[in-house]
Amino acid sequence: AILQVIGIGTPVQKAGKIMQQYGFQCSLMKDKPFSANKQYYEHLNYLYCDTSRGSVVSRRWQVAIVHQNSVVSDVLVSTGLIGP
């Protein structure tokens, strides 16, 4: 769903603004790891976006918008439930 809104080739700054409109908090990460879909990625440059929704049990989304030369080159997503 994210790739439908933020396509490959989108400027990373624009991608961040779009994600914030959807309620994500974002920050730039340089040469950092990210884990998604049971895979561990090392040494990525990405825009890290995070949000959660729900009350007692909530769903959390963690997104790495990978970029090269300030242009989106990939999107990695990790999601799960958090709560008591």
Question: What attributes does this structure have?
Answer:
single chain, 84 residues, alpha+beta, four-stranded antiparallel beta sheet, 4 strands
Provide the residue-averaged pLDDT: 94
Strand content: over 45%
Overall 3D form: globular
The percentage helix is: 10-25%
User: How far apart are the termini?
Assistant: 28 Å
Count the E strands.
Answer: 4
Order of helices and strands: HHEEEE
- Give a quick account of the main beta sheet: strands, pairing sense, barrel closure: 4 strands, antiparallel
Number of helices: 2
Radius of gyration: 13 Å
- Helix and strand composition category: alpha+beta
Low-confidence stretches: none
Strand order of the largest sheet: 1-2-3-4
Characterise this structure.
A hairpin with a 2-residue loop joins β3 (58-68) and β4 (71-82). The longest helix has 10 residues, at 12-21. 17% of the residues lie in helices and 61% in strands. The model has no long low-confidence stretch (mean pLDDT 94). The chain contains two helices and four strands. The protein is globular, with a radius of gyration of 13 Å. With 84 residues, it is an alpha+beta fold.
